[in-house]
Every structure is written in C-alpha cells, then in structure tokens.
Amino acid sequence: MDTDLILSCKQLFKAYKMGATRLEVLKGVDLAVAKGEFVAVTGASGSGKSTLLHILGALDKPDSGTVLFEGSDIFAFNNAKINDFRNKKIGFVFQFYHLLDELTVLQNVLLSPMVSSGALGWLFRSKNAKTTALKLLNELGLSGRIEHRPFQLSGGERQRVAIARALINQPDVILADEPTGNLDSETGNDILRVFEKLNSAGQTIVMVTHDDRIAAKAQRIIKLVDGKVTTN
Ligand SMILES: Nc1ncnc2c1ncn2[C@@H]1O[C@H](COP(=O)(O)OP(=O)(O)OP(=O)(O)O)[C@@H](O)[C@H]1O
Ligand SMILES: [Mg+2]
C-alpha cells in the first residue's frame, strides 16, 4: 500500500431505486487521495459528485466497493468507530453552510466537540475547545462576529464559519461540496484562498465543483463521467 495515501476508494457502485426504475449513479469509481493533496472533483450536474463525496465521508453507503481511510475499510468499522471517523477525521463543508440559526457563530463551531465529549468530558475540554474555536474564527477574519447568529451574516462569512466548524477537530481530510456554489465570484475566491492557505499548511482537501475555473485552483482535477472517473 502506498503509505502516503489517506483516503481512497475502489470500485464504488451506487444506484438509487425510484419505484420501478433504478438510477445507476456510480459505476465503479476508483480514487486515491494522498496526504496533503488538494483534489477537485468535477462533472456535470447529476454525475454523482455529491453522492461520491458523501460516501467518502461515510454520510452514505455504497452498494458495493470499499472506502479506505489510512488503509482501513471504513464500512467494516463498528458504529462507534464510524462515528468517530465522520466526526473527527473528516471535516465537511457544504454549499448551503448547514449552520444552526439558533446558535451563535461560536456555538456552531463548538457544537461537534461538545456533543462528542458528553457532559462530563465537556467540563474538562470546553476551555481548550473554546480557545481553539476563537483562534480559528480569528484566522478566518470572524473575531468580530462570534456572537452573531448565522442569519445575521453574509454568505461568505457563513461559509467561513462552516470552515471553522469543519476544522475544529483538526480533521485529516476536508470534504467540501460546492463550497463556493452559493457565493458571488469575489466571495467565492476568498473562500478558495482559505482552502489554498489551509492546503499549503498541509491540509488534505477534496472539493467538489462543477465550475472549471474553481477546479483549476486545485492541484489535481478528476472528472466524473458516466459513473466513472476520467482524468484529464
Ligand atoms: N436520495 C436520492 N434518491 C434518488 N436519486 C438521487 C438521490 N440523490 C441523488 N439522486 C440522483 O443521483 C444523481 C446524482 O446525484 P448527485 O447529487 O450525486 O449529483 P451531483 O453531481 O452532485 O449534481 P450537482 O452538480 O447538481 O450537485 C442525480 O441524477 C440525482 O437525481
Ligand atoms: Mg451535488
């Protein structure tokens, strides 16, 4: 095994059953991501980019095929281990942010470590977690927004909060699904610069985008066509 690989998949198949019809979306996807890589996944709308990303992050399961994280098959993990993988090893960033409007910016970023610590653990962990969250928010230019609620923020600010939330557990891999898809091009470029900076500091990133201009910022572009990966 190539020891530099962090996340890879082999022969992923996924179909959605809709009544009598069966929609084959992934038809044998192979992909290998090395530590520290910034990979863009492109392809037409409906080509299965989100489906693939969700499977890579264990938010969904393939019909067949394997996903290996540091050489281990994630779908062979027990429940506790797969939750741990999803929560601690992977950081998700979505097109529509998925922040909770009931919580402040700081609380949104702290939610995952709080839930995974449990009440007693949180007594011990909260101070460090809060320091980390404030540091991340500061680095993302949000120190003046920590008590805001997501609906009081601009789109770019919301996405930066979502990035801070994704980074709070120091994930090994960031999986981002159209992170600039809901933003104007200038704000989208700001978000890309955040990803580029994270990547230069060693962060592994897999980013889905249908926009070739945005994909061009990544080190490597893979394309989904007809349910398979084509490199170009
Ligand atoms: N839960 C589901 N049930 C049924 N069909 C689905 C489901 N999720 C996705 N699909 C279908 O699978 C195909 C791939 O969807 P997916 O969301 O992965 O595409 P995508 O490449 O991310 O597209 P986009 O660029 O528009 O986000 C689409 O044709 C979609 O309609
Ligand atoms: Mg999608």
Describe the structure.
By secondary structure, the chain is α/β, with parallel strands linked by helices. It has a single domain (38-59, 90-231), classed as Rossmann fold (3-Layer(aba) Sandwich). It has helices spanning 49-56, 79-89, 105-139, 155-167, 185-200, 212-215, and strands at residues 5-18, 21-34, 38-43, 64-69, 72-73, 90-93, 173-177, 204-208, 220-225, 228-231. Strand 9 (220-225) and strand 10 (228-231) form a beta hairpin. Helix 3 packs across helix 4 (155-167) and helix 4 (155-167) packs parallel to helix 5 (185-200). The protein is globular. The model has no long low-confidence stretch (mean pLDDT 94). It binds adenosine-5'-triphosphate and magnesium ion.
Summarize the structure.
With 232 residues, the protein is an alpha/beta fold. The chain contains six helices and ten strands. The longest helix is centred in the middle third of the chain and has 35 residues, at 105-139.
Please trace the helix and strand order, writing H or E for each element: EEEHEEHEHHEHEHEE
Spell out the CATH superfamily.
P-loop containing nucleotide triphosphate hydrolases
Q: How many domains would you count in the coordinates?
A: 1
Strand content is: 25-35%
Task: Determine Rg (CA atoms, Å).
Answer: 18 Å
Indicate the low-confidence ranges by residue numbers: none
Whole-number mean pLDDT:
94
